[in-house]
Structure formats: structure tokens, C-alpha cells
Amino acid sequence: MGYLTFWLSVVGAFLLWTALCTSLASRFPRMRRLLVCVSIASPLLVLGPLVVAAGYFEFVLRIDFHWLSYVFSAMTLTLVGSIWILRKGLTEHSIHEPEAATWSLRGLSLATAMFIFSGSMTLAVMDWNMRQQAVHVRDESRGIMLSLMPQFAPPHRNAARFYLQAIARMDADLAALQESSPLVDPLADAFGESAGNLLLRHAETLRIIRHAMTLDNCWFDRDWSRPSFDMLLPEIQGCRNLARLLSLSAKRHAAEGQISEAMIDIACIKRLADHVGFEPLLICSLVSVAIDTTALTTLASVLPSVTSLKEIDAVDFFHIINTTSGRCLFVRSFLGEEAFGLSMAAGFLDGTLGFDVFAPLLSEDKPSTLFFSRWLPMSAGPFFRVFFNAQEIASYKSLVHQFQKLSAQPISFSELKKQTTRLEKLFLENNHSGLLGQLIPSFQSVFNAGYRSQTFQQAAYALLAATRYRIENNSLPNSLDLLKPEYFSEIPPDPFADKTPLLLRVTPDHWSVYSVGPNGVDDGGPPQLNADQSSGNDDVGLQMTTNSTFKLKSTGP
Asked: What pLDDT is recorded for position 531?
């Protein structure tokens, strides 16, 4: 009802304005042409840009709010009505006096003012109602986030406290964060002098991290009742640096023959990944998966140095290799993303957030960039809240809910990819969420990360079985079938390929277990760290070096 009242107020105000100009034109013949032009130009100058903007929304940005028909009909009706009023009012009677000359200027002025006041008040009331909805939207966001928040931990049992101490020590060492540092360079020699000096400087940092892994809970001090951009965790990059430091330490221990210490460092990396994943935000889950991958690639580099089954049995590999962890993390984080988006929407509703918060999210090659960065801030406020935000919130929730359901379903990667492509295509073709839509991540990339994590877990399981086989048989198998049934009942499945086992590639230098990756094509095994990224090889897996003292055992006679 409010939208209809506002529409009628706008059309009525312009028609009365035309009648007022017509009445003035009939009284002042010398200014007739000017007043006629003013009466016609006024609706064009006001409603014309709105028609263009609505068309830009619908046909360029593809934000399907259906306001074009309303704005265009208002402008068309105003123009047609104005022309009729001008012809009717300026037609001279038999006494050679236009009919408009008899119209009351005071009455038309008051009526025009009343319609303008009515439209302004209608807009203000609708805006006030939308502001009141911010309370309910924020409560919904708070409820979702509080149901997902990590368990509170007292300071002495809180791993986050010790991680922050370790991160501060790392940040103070500028040399350690340079590109040439063994902490950053994945090809750096862990047994080199530079790596040794780095580990010596951060012996206390490593002690702090290893203590943190003994704690059950990780609680970073932040207001979980009000999700915001401030929660995009500045300590995330710091945690990745801690994982790199532990990885370097594990490789160093393995090179020195201290396998037990190396395994402890790998377990610390895994525990760090778990702690980062406690926080129900998508960025936390993605970083957790990345740290978990660091643990497994480090494990692959350490396993060739293992010479005894006792060194393996001393570690809880069931905890290190958990093939369901990635998917579980994303199910929680998608709920957190919904709470985050609703909190942003509540901020726009009550005016506590401005559109400048989207500046880091906008891509220069998108047509929406100019709109969101320049035009929208000038036209924001009541109009955005009244005419866009309600539909934005409903559309955002609908889209995120569909992806939440999809992430929780135990379906194959090919089917998941098909469903994700369908939803993203539907979102692009019928974009109902222009502003909050900027918060929607690339769900295909997120799901790919989850399946990549699962693949690394499966590959690590196979590498561990092969290491046991090597220790007992003094050779590595040249086929995964040789590991059945003693080391595993079935070859671990390829998460990216339906009902297909992981692949094995053996070279004189490497023993690799891998998946065909997202493209479903065997590209010859996972690429080397220094490989050309433009080759198109998206195979996912782990590889360990082949010790020259061991021979590959063939399945043949």
C-alpha cells in the first residue's frame, strides 16, 4: 500500500505542477513558452534519470527488481497527462481567455505542496519501517552466529592467546617474512644455514605453538553477536606463517633423523588447522584447509625418512588424516556467511554502514563497479532502504540457503559441479541481489577447495600405507593394488571422479598418489612446485621422494 501511495503522490504532484505552470502561462503570455517547457521538462529531468537507472539495473547489472515498469509508467502517465492539461488549459474560449486563467493559483499551489508532502511522508514512514526491521535482521544474524561460535575458554586454556604471542614474535622478524626467506620459499633447503638460523631465532616461538596445541579450545576475542568486516581476522595470515614455521621445523628434524620430533610438528600444524577452523566464517575454513594441506604435504616430505614402524605408530594418524574434516567445516561456515550477510544488511537498514565497505570487494572489470563506487553513494539512504533492501535480504537468504543444502548433501563432485553451475548461472541471469550479492563468494571455488582437501587426505592415507609397505618389504610398490588388503581394504577413492580410485605415478625420483582434479582429466600427476602454472595441469595429490636404497616392487613376475 505504501508503494502505491508513493507512486500516486509522485504522479499527482507532477500533474498538479503542470496545471500550476499552465495557469501561470495563461496569465503571463510573454512567459508562456518558458513555462510550457518547464512543465514538460520537470518530469523528464526527475523521472528520466530514474528510468535510465532502472533500465541499467535490469538489463546491464541484471538486478531483477522490476522497478522499471513502475518508473516508466509514472513518467509516461505524467507526460501524457501534462500534454493534455496544457492543451486543455491553454485553449482559448469565446471570450479569448484560456481556460487555465480561471484556475486558482493558490489552490493549485496548495494541492501541489500537499502531494509533495504526502509523497515525502510516505517515503519517510516506509523508511522508518525498514529501519525498524534492522533490529529483527540483526537479531536473526546474532542468533545464527551465537549458535556457531566457538566454546568459550578461560585465558589459561585458550590456544588463541598463545597463537597471538607467537604471531607477534613472527611479525617482529621482518627478515623471516621476505620472499627469499626459507619460511616463504617452498623450494628452500630445510637443512641449509638460512633455515637453521631462522629456526634458532624462533625456538621460543615454536615452544609457544607446541604448547598451544595441547589446549582444547581456541577463542579469539571478538564480538560474535555483531558479525562485521572487522571479523575478517588479521591473525589469519599470521597463523599461516606459524604453519610454515612448523613445516620448516619438521623437515629440518626429518633431515637430522629426528622423526618423532618431525611428526610432533606435523601434528601441531594439524591442530593449528583445527583451531583456525573453530571460527564459523568461510575465510577461516579456507585458511584451515590450507594449513591442513601444509600438514599433509609436510608429512609427504618426511615419510621417506621414516625407517621404523615405531616412528609411525607413535603418532595419532587418525587425527592427522581425517577425510571428512573439509566438508564439515564448510557446512558450518556457510551458516556463518549467512549471519555475516544479514549483519551487513542490518547495517544498511539502520544507516550504521556506508557503501564504502564494499570498496575492497569490487572488481574494476565489472559493470557494477562504477555504480556501487560512484552513483550509489550519492543516491543511497531512504531510497535504497525502501526500494531495494527488503528484496535484497530475501534473495540473499534464498541463494545462500540453496548452497547450504547443497554443501550438506553427500553427492559426487560431478553432480555438485552441475548443481553449483546451475545456481550460479541462475544467479547471474536473474540477479536479485545487487549489493549483498557482492558478498556472495564463488561457491564453485569453495567446493573445489573442500574436495581438494579431501583428496589430500586420501592421498596421505595411501602414502602412509606405502611407507609401512616399504619398511616391511624394503621396497615401494609400483601399484596401489599391492597394498590391498593388508594396508587398506580398498584403494582410496578419487573425490573428483565418481567411483574411481586414486591414481599412482612412479618416476625414478618421486612416488605420487593423485586425483584427476576438477577437470576430470589425468594430466600426469600433480605439478611440481616450480612448474609452469599455465600448463593447465590441475591434478591434485601428494608425492614423496623415492629413496635410492629402496627398489620399486613390481606386480609382474
From this structure: 57
Query: Angle at CA 512, nearest 5°, toward 508 and 514?
Result: 150
Pair (195, 256) in one structural domain: yes
3-state secondary structure 46-104: HHHHHHHHHHHHHHHCCECCCCHHHHHHHHHHHHHHHHHHHHHHHCECCCCCEHHHHCC
Short-list 372, 340, 376, 394, CA closest to 133 = 394
Which stretches in the chain have pLDDT values below 50?
323-324, 362-379, 433, 548-557
Residue 291's pLDDT is 93
371 within domain boundaries: yes
Omega into 485 within 30° of 0, i.e. cis? yes
374 CB burial (10 A radius; 0-12, 13-18, 19+) = exposed
104 C-beta neighbours (distance < 10 Å), count = 11
Task: Looking at the structure, tell me whether residues 251 and 209 fall in a common domain.
Answer: yes
Q: Distance (Å, rounded) from C-alpha 290 to C-alpha 240? A: 8
496 and 556 in a common domain: yes
Same domain, 175 and 279: yes
* Residue 449 domain-assigned (yes or no): no
pLDDT the model gives residue 532? 57
Question: Are 431 and 473 members of one domain?
Answer: no
Strands 503-506 and 510-515: antiparallel
**What's the domain count of the chain?**
4
